[in-house]
Design brief:
This protein has a domain of about 140 residues: 2-Layer Sandwich (Beta-Lactamase), CATH 3.30.450. About 50% of the residues lie in helices and about 15% in strands. It is built from nine helices and seven strands. The strands form two sheets. A five-stranded mixed beta sheet has the order 4-3-7-6-5. A two-stranded antiparallel sheet has the order 1-2. α5 links the parallel β3 and β4. α3 packs antiparallel against α4 and α3 packs parallel to α8.
C-alpha cells in the first residue's frame, strides 16, 4: 500500500470515528460496502457489528469472572490469616510461636520454606530452626539493602547466592521467593517465603497478605523486647 493511499485511508477512518452517524445519513452506502469474514464469506455490516459486540461481551465476561475468582481467593486468604493470627496470639514461647507459624504457612498457605533473618540475636536465639540472626551491617545483606530500606515486599526468583544466604541447606527446594522487610524500613529483619513452584511468587503480584503477615511477626517481636526497648522504639 502506497503512502498516499494509506494517508487517505487514515483520513476516511478518522472522519468516520468523529461522525459515527455517517452511514445512518447515507444508508445507500451500506449496500455497497463489502466486509469479509475470517472464513472468507461476505457478511453485512450489521452482522459484523453484532459479531464484534459478542466478542467484546465475552471478553468482559471473562474479565469479570477472573475478578470474582480473585476476590473469592483474597477473602479466603484473609480469613485464614485472621485464624492464624488468633492461633498465634496466646503463644508466649518464641520457638513455639515460629514453629506454629511455619507449620501453618506450609499446611494452610502452600508455603514450602519459611526463613526469618532477625537483627536481634536474643530474639533469634530461642526462635527455632526457621530463624537465624545477622547484624544489619553484615555485608551478606548488601544485596537486600534497597529492599530493607524501601520497606516493600518483593516477589520473584533469586540468585543462588541470595537463596543460600536466606535458606541455607534448604535453598535447593526454593524456585520462587517472597521477601518482606520486618518493621519500618526493615528495622527488625527480613522474612523470606520460599516455594518449589517457580511461578508461585512473581513480580507484580499482590502483596497485601505478605504485609499483614509481616505486621503480625513484627508485633510479636516487639512484645519480646525488654520494656525499656519497647518504650524507645
Amino acid at each position: 500500500m502506497s503512502d498516499d493511499k494509506a494517508a487517505r485511508e487514515d483520513v476516511v477512518a478518522e472522519y468516520l470515528r468523529t461522525h459515527p452517524d455517517f452511514l445512518t445519513r447515507h444508508p445507500d452506502l451500506l449496500e455497497q460496502l463489502e466486509l469479509r469474514h475470517g472464513s472468507g464469506t461476505a457478511v453485512s455490516l450489521i452482522e459484523r457489528q453484532v459479531e464484534q459486540l459478542r466478542t467484546a461481551n465475552d471478553e468482559l465476561r471473562d474479565r469479570l469472572n477472573r475478578l470474582v475468582s480473585v476476590a473469592a481467593e483474597n477473602e479466603q486468604l484473609m480469613s485464614r490469616l485472621h485464624r492464624l493470627t488468633l492461633e498465634l496470639m496466646p503463644i508466649e514461647a518464641p520457638g513455639a510461636f515460629f514453629d506454629h507459624l511455619g507449620t501453618s504457612l506450609n499446611e494452610d498457605f502452600g508455603i514450602d520454606v519459611l526463613s526469618l533473618c532477625l537483627f536481634d540475636p536474643a530474639a533469634a536465639a530461642d526462635a527455632g530452626d526457621d530463624v537465624f540472626a545477622a547484624a544489619r551491617e553484615d555485608a551478606a545483606l548488601d544485596p537486600f539493602r534497597s529492599l530493607l530500606d524501601g520497606g516493600q515486599a518483593l516477589c520473584g526468583r533469586l540468585s543462588e547466592s541470595k537463596l543460600g544466604f536466606l535458606f541455607g541447606a534448604r535453598a535447593g527446594q526454593v524456585r520462587s521467593t517472597a521477601l518482606v522487610p520486618l518493621g519500618e524500613q526493615g528495622r527488625d529483619g527480613l522474612m523470606a517465603l520460599g516455594s518449589a513452584d517457580p511461578d508461585r511468587f512473581f513480580p507484580g503480584m499482590g502483596t497485601l497478605f505478605l504485609g499483614l503477615l509481616a505486621d503480625v511477626i513484627t508485633a510479636r517481636l516487639a512484645l519480646s523486647r525488654p520494656t525499656e526497648q519497647r518504650r524507645s522504639a
